[in-house]
Amino acid sequence: MGQENQVKKDSPLYEQNTLILASSQNEKLVKIEKEKSIALINAWEENEKAKAQTKAYRELCSIEAWENNMKTALELDLKKMEENLEVEKSEYTKRFKKKVPEIEKIAGAKREKIEKQKGQETIKLEKMSDKLTATPSAYPPTTKTCGCF
């Protein structure tokens, strides 16, 4: 009974069934190959994206490190300049403190000279006043300083 439903190998129907089975198996294999190929392409794409992201991350980290190094270098330069300014300021302060007594000494000497001159003028005027007081007729002078009057 089971043999009646079976198609004989020599018959054209058998060849047609075989071709249909083979073509359906080929379609399945082609479909599997296509899916496999798509899966490989997707995996490749994801891998390439990951590589690109890793490369970009490395470059960003490198830029950030460079930026930090440059900022640190600038901060060190600024600190050096500030230290140099502090040293210069202290040197100028020392010079100033050394010059202040010199200036005070010179000013004192000038004051003393003026006071001495003032004293000499006072003494001179007192002598003249005493002289004029001793001879009251001497002031105002009667002699003409100019010969025409």
How would you summarize what this structure contains?
With 149 residues, this protein is mainly α. The protein has helices at 2-5, 12-134. It has 2 helices and no strands.
How would you sum up this structure, described in words?
Belongs to the remorin family. InterPro entries: Remorin_C. The chain is mostly helical. It has one domain (13-133). The chain has 2 helices and no strands. It has helices spanning 2-5, 12-134. The longest helix has 123 residues, at 12-134. The chain is rod-shaped, with a radius of gyration of 60 Å. The mean pLDDT is 84.
Averaged pLDDT: 84
Shape: rod-shaped
Largest sheet: none
Q: What is the total domain count?
A: 1
Query: Poorly predicted ranges (pLDDT <50, ≥5 residues)?
Result: none
- As a whole number of angstroms, the C-alpha radius of gyration is 60 Å
Relevant terms:
single chain, Remorin C-terminal domain-containing protein, mainly alpha, Remorin_C, 149 residues
Topology:
Blueprint: H1 2-5, H2 12-134
